[in-house]
Write a structure and sequence with these properties.
9 helices; 4 domains; Immunoglobulin-like; elongated; 29 strands; 34% strand; alpha+beta
C-alpha cells in the first residue's frame, strides 16, 4: 500500500482551516435569545420627537417587530442597527429596531406587552419599563436633550401693537449626528399672525447642559399680529433627515465577509419629521384712540415724506394732472393705504395707485409711492389740493402728521372749438352777393313763341340760332362756376369741415367699439364708446369733444329729451373710461354679453334725437 505524507505547509493550512471553522462556529453558535424595549428619552416635551428602541440579543436574523398601537402616540419605523461583539472568545449579537415617536397630547404612555416572532418562535416583549412621560410645553420640568429635534421661537419685544411688524428668530435644534434637508420652511400655526420672508439662515454648534452638542439653524423674519389679545405664536416646519445606522453583514458580498464581522460599516436611514415650537404667548394691544388723526390710514413705524410732485404744473381745465407722494421709512409698508386728498368740488379725483421698492428681504424698510390722477374743474385753482400722511410710532407711542408743501399750478380755461357762425354767415352772404351781381348781367331767355312761319330753312340758318347757342353756353358756364364756387366755399367753411371730421371720428370709433368687444378689451371698448358720445354732443355744442365735461353731456341730452335710463348709461360709460385710464384697473373690468347690445341701443336713440 502506498503511503501519503503531508508537508509542513499542508499541515499548517489544515490547522488554520480548523481554527477558522471553530471560530466561525463559535461566532454563530445559538445564544439565548432575549428581547427588550425602551423609550429614549423617558421624558419628552410635547412637540418634540423621541425614540422607541426594541432590541433582540442572541439572533442575527430577526425580522422587524410589529409595534402595537398606543392611543395618543404616533410611531413610525426609523431604522435598524446591529452590533456584534467578541469578548474573551464569547460572541454577543444584538439588533436594535428604532422607531420615531411623537405625542398628540401631553400625558403618560406605556408600551403594552406584545409577541415577537423570531426564527419561527414567539417571544414575549415585556414592556414594564417602556414608559414615556410627555410634558406640557413651557413646563418647569422641561428636559433638555441632545437627541431631540426642536424648534424654538425668540421674540424680543414685550409690548406689541396690532398691525406692528416685529422681528422674530426661529431656531431649529438637531443632533450633530444627523443631516438632512428642509422640505417645508417654518410656517405659523393659526391665523393670529402673518410672517414675512426669511434671510439666509445662520448655522452654529452649541453645547447643552448635559454636555451633548447640537447644531442650530436660525431663521430671522418679521411677523405682524392681526388681532388684539393674548395670542399664541407657534411655528412648525418640515424636514427630511438622515441618521447613521449599522449595515446588516448578510447584505455584504463575500469579499467583505471578515470586514463585515469585524468592521463597523454604516448606511443612512431617511425619515420625514415635523418639529413644532412651544407656543409663545404674546400680548397684543390696540392702537391708542387719543390723538389718532382722522386721516390715519394704518401706517405703523417711523416714516418721512421724501417727495411730493405734480406733473404738469401748467394745464387747462379738464386736463389730467399726476400727483406723486413718496413715503420712506420702516414699518408695515404693505399695509399702508393711500392718504386721502382734501379735494373739494374744484377737483375730480380718481382712485390712486401705489408702488413699493423694498430695501430688505422682509419689506420692512423701503419707499412707497402713491400716484393720484386729478383733473381741475376750475381756472381759479392756483395749487395742488392739501394732503397729509399720518402714522403711529410704536417706540414713542405717538401719532404724527406730515403735510408736504402744496405745488403751485397755473390752470387756464379749456380751449373751446372756435365759433364759426359769423364767419360762415359772412361766407354765405358774400357768395350770394357775388352770384346775384354776376347773374344780373345775363338777360333772361325767352322760350315762348309769338308767331310761327312755316319754312324749310335749316335751323342753324335761322336768325335766333346764334343768340340761343350763346345763351345756352353762358347758362352752362354759370352753372359750372356756381358748383365750383360752392365747393370752394365748403373747403373754406370751418363748420362744414368740423361736421365732416366729427362724422369720420364717430364712424371710426364705432368700428373700434365692435372690435374691442370681440377681443374682450374693456379699456378700448369704453374709451371708443366715450369718444362716440362726446363727438355726437360736439356736433351741436360750442365746445370741442375734448373740452366737454360730464355735466355738459348730461345737460345736452336732457335738452334733447333723452330718457334718464340712457343718460345714466352714458354717465356710466364716461366714468368707467376715466377710471380705467387714470386708475389702471382695466383688468378688473369685464365686458358682459349685454355690453355691446346696450351700446347699440344707445346709438339708435342718439340717431333719433340728434
Amino acid at each position: 500500500m502506498k503511503k501519503f505524507y503531508l508537508s509542513n505547509s499542508m499541515l499548517k493550512t489544515i490547522y488554520m482551516l480548523f481554527l477558522t471553522i471553530a471560530f466561525v462556529s463559535k461566532v454563530f453558535a445559538a445564544d439565548k435569545i432575549t428581547v427588550s424595549a425602551a423609550f429614549e428619552p423617558k421624558e419628552l416635551v410635547f412637540g418634540r420627537r423621541g425614540l422607541l428602541n426594541v432590541t433582540v440579543s442572541g439572533s442575527k436574523n430577526a425580522s422587524a417587530p410589529t409595534i402595537p398601537e398606543i392611543d395618543g402616540l404616533t410611531i413610525r419605523v426609523l431604522g435598524t442597527q446591529q452590533n456584534i461583539q467578541v469578548i474573551n472568545g464569547a460572541t454577543s449579537i444584538s439588533s436594535t429596531y428604532s422607531f420615531s415617536v411623537s405625542a398628540q397630547r401631553p400625558g403618560e404612555y406605556s408600551l403594552p406587552d406584545f409577541e415577537w416572532d423570531i426564527n419561527g418562535e414567539k417571544y414575549l416583549v415585556s414592556s414594564s419599563t417602556a414608559k414615556l412621560r410627555v410634558l406640557e410645553q413651557g413646563s418647569s420640568e422641561e428636559v433638555e436633550t441632545g437627541m431631540a429635534i426642536d424648534l424654538k421661537v425668540n421674540v424680543t419685544q414685550d409690548k406689541v401693537f396690532v398691525g406692528e411688524m416685529i422681528p422674530v428668530t426661529v431656531a431649529l435644534y438637531a443632533p450633530t449626528t444627523i443631516s438632512g434637508q428642509v422640505s417645508v420652511m417654518p410656517t405659523i400655526e393659526g391665523d393670529d399672525f402673518i410672517s414675512y420672508g426669511y434671510r439666509e439662515p445662520s448655522r452654529e454648534v452649541v453645547e447643552n447642559s448635559d454636555g451633548s452638542k447640537r447644531q442650530v439653524v436660525s431663521y430671522e423674519t418679521y411677523i405682524m399680529p392681526l388681532k388684539v389679545g393674548d395670542n399664541s405664536l407657534q411655528y412648525k416646519m418640515g424636514l427630511v433627515i438622515q441618521t447613521p445606522q449599522s449595515m446588516n453583514p448578510n447584505r455584504l458580498n463575500a469579499n467583505n465577509f471578515f470586514e463585515s464581522i469585524f468592521g463597523n460599516l454604516t448606511i443612512n436611514g431617511v425619515e420625514e419629521v415635523e418639529p413644532i415650537s412651544v407656543p409663545e404667548k404674546i400680548n397684543v394691544i390696540a392702537l391708542p384712540i387719543h390723538g389718532k388723526p382722522e386721516n390715519f390710514t394704518g401706517a405703523i413705524g417711523d416714516f418721512k415724506v421724501e417727495a411730493f410732485t405734480a406733473i404738469p404744473q401748467d394745464a387747462h381745465v379738464g386736463d389730467p394732472i399726476t400727483l406723486k407722494l413718496a413715503v420712506k421709512g420702516g414699518g408695515n409698508m404693505d399695509r399702508i393705504s393711500a392718504p386721502i386728498l382734501n379735494a373739494e368740488g374744484d377737483w375730480k379725483v380718481y382712485t390712486p395707485k401705489s408702488t413699493f421698492s423694498k430695501e430688505d428681504a422682509f419689506g420692512f424698510t423701503g419707499t412707497k409711492i402713491f400716484e393720484y390722477i386729478i383733473i381741475p374743474q376750475s381756472d381759479k385753482i392756483t395749487e395742488t389740493p392739501p394732503i397729509t400722511f399720518s402714522f403711529f410710532n410704536p417706540k414713542t407711542e405717538r401719532y404724527y402728521e406730515l403735510t408736504p408743501d402744496a405745488v403751485g399750478l397755473r390752470i387756464t380755461a379749456a380751449p373751446e372749438s372756435v365759433n364759426q357762425s359769423n364767419i360762415v354767415s359772412s361766407h354765405i352772404n358774400q357768395n350770394t352777393t357775388q352770384i346775384s351781381s354776376e347773374g344780373s348781367e345775363l338777360l333772361p331767355i325767352k322760350l315762348g313763341i309769338t308767331h310761327s312761319v312755316r319754312t324749310l330753312r335749316p335751323l342753324m340758318t335761322r336768325p335766333f340760332f346764334t343768340p340761343l347757342l350763346i345763351g345756352l353756353a353762358i347758362a352752362i358756364g354759370g352753372l359750372l362756376a356756381l358748383i365750383k364756387r360752392r365747393k370752394l366755399r365748403h373747403a373754406q367753411d370751418a363748420e362744414y369741415l368740423k361736421q365732416v371730421n366729427i362724422e369720420k371720428v364717430i364712424q371710426a370709433n364705432l368700428e373700434k367699439v365692435r372690435k374691442a368687444y370681440a377681443k374682450g378689451d374693456a379699456g378700448e371698448f369704453y374709451h371708443a364708446a366715450s369718444v362716440v358720445i362726446l363727438e355726437v354732443v360736439a356736433r351741436e355744442h360750442s365746445k370741442s369733444a375734448q373740452a366737454l365735461h360730464v355735466e355738459d353731456v348730461e345737460n345736452f341730452f336732457r335738452e334733447k329729451k333723452l330718457s334718464e335710463e340712457f343718460i345714466s348709461f352714458i354717465k356710466t360709460i364716461l366714468n368707467t373710461d376715466d377710471v380705467i385710464r387714470f386708475s389702471g384697473v382695466a383688468d378688473e373690468k369685464r365686458l358682459s354679453s349685454e355690453s355691446l347690445k346696450n351700446f347699440e341701443s344707445l346709438i339708435n336713440e342718439l340717431e333719433k334725437c340728434c
